[in-house]
Design brief:
Number of helices: 6
Helix content: 55-70%
Distance between the termini: 83 Å
Strand order of the largest sheet: 3-1-2-4
Radius of gyration: 33 Å
Number of strands: 4
Structural class: alpha+beta
Strand content: 5-15%
């Protein structure tokens, strides 16, 4: 049925092109007629499939109502299946994450794909950083801003922005490089050294 509709739509498209080229409105009306026939066939097919779906559950319900003995037998059969499911669940063993394999205190591997998480910034750091015009970088299509030394950036194309502008545009700090904490810490160190 769908192949017939596809042929009708392609014919309608061809007739529409012919009507535009020849400036003959008859071809356009025939194209419209073929499109309407294709639409009616789609509606007819949808209604036919809907009737089949409605009839299928009704047919499957009738045998269940007539034989109650089979229902009790099937219920008895399902009980052993339920006992087997927990055994299957016990056999599943989860592999430890990469950080749990060794006992050394190494830095976690930076997240290479996807979006790094958002830094949980200290409100005092946010207040300091909002007033600064220090440059951070963003990556197109990602909502985080980073310091230029962030491991997540790798070879990605970056766009430099002032940190205040990045925040105004809705970017949030990266959890891997923690730009708010790092920049606020650098600013505090600088003000201590100046005083």
């Amino acid at each position: 049925m769908l192949y017939i509709v596809l042929v009708l739509v392609l014919a309608a498209l061809g007739l529409l092109v012919a009507a535009l080229i020849t400036a003959n409105s008859l071809w356009a009306w025939i194209s419209i007629g073929l499109s309407v026939v294709a639409g009616l066939l789609l509606v007819f097919d949808w209604l036919r499939r809907r009737k089949k779906r409605a009839a299928a559950p009704a047919e499957s319900e009738e045998p269940e109502d007539s034989e109650e003995a089979d229902d009790s037998a099937s219920a008895e059969k399902s009980e052993p299946d339920e006992e087997e499911k927990p055994e299957d669940a016990e056999q599943t063993v989860l592999m430890p994450t990469a950080g749990e394999l060794s006992d050394t205190d190494e830095a976690p591997e930076p997240q290479r794909n996807g979006d790094p998480g958002e830094e949980k910034s200290d409100p005092a750091d946010v207040a300091i950083v909002s007033d600064l015009e220090i440059e951070v970088v963003v990556v197109d299509e990602y909502p985080r801003y980073h310091v230029t030394t962030c491991a997540w950036l790798e070879t990605r194309d970056t766009i430099p922005l002032g940190i205040g502008e990045a925040r105004q545009l809705g970017f949030t700090p990266c959890a891997l490089c923690a730009p708010d904490a790092e920049i606020a810490g650098q600013h505090r160190d600088k003000t201590k050294a100046d005083s």
